[in-house]
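Margin note: ligand = iron/sulfur cluster.
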Amino acid sequence: MFPNHISNEIKNPKVHAIYFSPARSTKKVVEAIASGISDDVQIHDITQGIQKQVDIKPNEIAVVGVPAYSGRVPALACEYLQQINGNGARAIVTCVYGNNDYQYTLDELTHICGDRGFIPISSGAFVARHSIFQEVAKGRPDKRDLDKARQFGKQSVLHTRVSAGGQQKLKGLHPNRPVGEISLAVKTDSNCNYCGACARLCPVGAIDFNNPKKTSKKDCIACARCIEMCSYNARKFKGLLYHIARKRFEDSNQERKEVEVFIPL
Ligand SMILES: Cc1cc2nc3c(=O)[nH]c(=O)nc-3n(C[C@H](O)[C@H](O)[C@H](O)COP(=O)(O)O)c2cc1C
Ligand code: SF4
Ligand code: SF4
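Resulting structure:
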């Protein structure tokens, strides 16, 4: 028999939900995975950076999630994750993508977690509404996805309680190629009431605080956070090229993709 506090640590371990999630889908998935493991969840939303280094304790568990951007971990997320120390704690590695392909994202995030001192114990790729082409995978993650996320969290920990570690099967090789850049114009329309929320929440400060109708195309990473966060529905991707790409993308990504998880036996 274990003393009470140790037995509680095993049954209800401290879990850190760590995510970069501009349009808030990754947040939903990571929080669902964490809630499948424990009631004791600490949230670390790193979308707008981290104030100071975070140290995870070796007996704690982290669920680390990012969206796929051009099949990769977003560059900003890579940068912010350097502020987190795993200290030998177990990590559940998660990516969320817009029903097209996550390519190297999981593999790359697994490497990053390892480099930060975590022991990656499982990984999962989940589908969510595409934040640029918003008709694709609309309504996801849905109840089925979130149920799977909770189950995935629970199973990851059950399988690895005795011996942490082990190699999960990875989908792709970590590529040494530059992160793809997406150049899109986000415009503000006449519904804007100048509340300033978009400027405050933009992860790269691309929106002018004094005039939210001005967005720096050079700085914008097309993450769609301002579109998601504007209560007046005043911001949208615009332009002929965007509309042509959107039609093509919607036509070729209609088929529902399912959650993929990798848990070592
Ligand atoms: C810049 C950018 C690039 C993206 N690239 C991909 C991609 O390569 N494959 C894909 O299926 N979805 C892609 N997506 C869609 C996102 O991965 C998806 O919408 C995700 O749910 C966004 O997470 P968030 O809501 O936490 O921000 C991309 C989205 C953005 C903004
Ligand atoms: S959040 Fe919307 S309403 Fe507020 S300043 Fe930005 S665009 Fe305008
Ligand atoms: S302006 Fe660009 S980078 Fe900033 S929140 Fe909007 S889409 Fe994201």
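Residues 194 and 212 are 7 Å apart (CA to CA).
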